[in-house]
Write a structure and sequence with these properties.
about 30% strand; elongated; about 30% helix; Arc Repressor Mutant, subunit A; BirA Bifunctional Protein, domain 2; alpha+beta; disordered N terminus; five-stranded antiparallel beta sheet; SH3 type barrels; about 325 residues; binds biotin
Length: about 325
């Protein structure tokens, strides 16, 4: 089957596997290895090898006398799905934690927007030294950021990530995602996603911030405590982990290369479920209870305690008795 030249142009510069998949998508019937090797300028053996690799990782590709036919694609954040960003993606079937691998890469100087993603984590970590259950079907990744912002603005990166992830999921699946300070994504009080960050800095500049993000997507959350929910359980649409990651990446990269975090606190407040509630904030060594009245320009939560004091908390985990 001949493919029109116009249909092929957008594939320029994309990874070979992505091109092979796109060709099979565009074709009305099977595409021969000979045809693919000609259009893509590689040997038939190379095409055959890539087909085998795609089949091994879960692509249902039928081999017919007339050529290859793509029957079904798995929903996985494979590097080639991310087009020109392929080289920034480090994909693993299983890791102890994407935080550790990303830390190693960041320390070795890997560029901003390097991403480590794993299908499963055996030692997934949450904030305040909790575990993060990381079974198959969820989206687990850490993104290396190198923002050129003053050190004091670092907490705003977490708020920005929460806002951008919430906006992505709302945009793709029409799910009304709310935010619990500092950066939990909730739907009707159940946890949809969490964010953990690690930073390395000099006194006057940030070296890197690693954002670790776990999103419940297809994974079973029925036994997770506190109560959690998955994207797939909240929509009838076909859910794609790659599209969630890509959408988030687009938004955050645009925000950070724009160089400004202006407006992020207001955007965060627009989705906040914390404000107006009496909450308890747990830090590593302490806890404080009060009415959450505001988020300060630096991202700190402002609490009014029962004895009338105003306390600001910059780091911790927040418990909402009423949620
Ligand atoms: C939290 O809500 O407590 C934060 C959860 C963060 C989980 C993610 S999953 C990917 C990355 N790797 C980890 O070990 N943790 C983060």
């Amino acid at each position: 089957m001949r493919l029109p030249a116009a249909a092929l142009r957008p594939l320029k510069g994309r990874p070979l596997k992505a091109k092979i998949i796109a060709h099979m998508h565009q074709a009305a019937g099977p595409v021969s290895g000979e045809r693919l090797s000609k259009v893509l300028g590689v040997s038939r053996v190379a095409i055959w090898k890539h087909m085998r690799q795609l089949q091994t990782v879960g692509y249902a590709i039928e081999t017919t006398p007339k050529g290859y036919r793509l029957v079904k694609e798995p929903d996985a954040p494979f590097p080639w799905v991310f087009g020109p960003r392929e080289s920034q993606m480090h994909y693993h079937q299983e890791l102890p934690s994407t935080m550790d691998s990303a830390m190693e890469l960041a320390r070795k100087g890997s560029p901003a927007f390097t991403v480590v993603v794993a299908e499963r984590q055996t030692k997934g970590r949450g904030r305040l030294q909790r575990q993060w259950q990381s079974t198959q079907g969820g989206l687990y990744f850490t993104m290396v950021l190198r923002p050129r912002i003053p050190l004091a603005e670092a907490p705003l990166i977490n708020l920005a990530a929460a806002v951008d992830l919430a906006a992505t999921i709302t945009h793709l699946y029409e799910i009304p995602v709310q935010l619990k300070w500092p950066n939990d994504l909730l739907v009707e009080g159940r946890k949809l996603a969490g964010i953990l960050s690690q930073m390395a800095a000099e006194p006057d500049r940030i070296d890197f911030i690693n954002l670790g993000i776990g999103v419940n997507v297809h994974n079973d959350t029925r036994r997770v405590k506190p109560p959690a929910v998955s994207v797939a359980a909240l929509t009838d649409r076909t859910v794609s982990r790659a599209r969630i990651l890509e959408g988030f990446w687009d938004r955050l990269e645009q925000r950070l290369t724009g160089g400004s975090l202006a407006g992020v606190v207001d955007q965060w407040k627009g989705r906040a479920v914390t404000l107006g509630k009496t909450v308890t904030v747990q830090t590593l060594n302490d806890q404080v209870t009060g009415l959450a009245v505001d988020v300060a320009p630096d991202g700190a939560l402002v609490l009014e305690t029962a004895d009338g004091r105003r306390v600001t908390v910059l780091y911790g985990d927040c418990f909402h008795p009423q949620v």
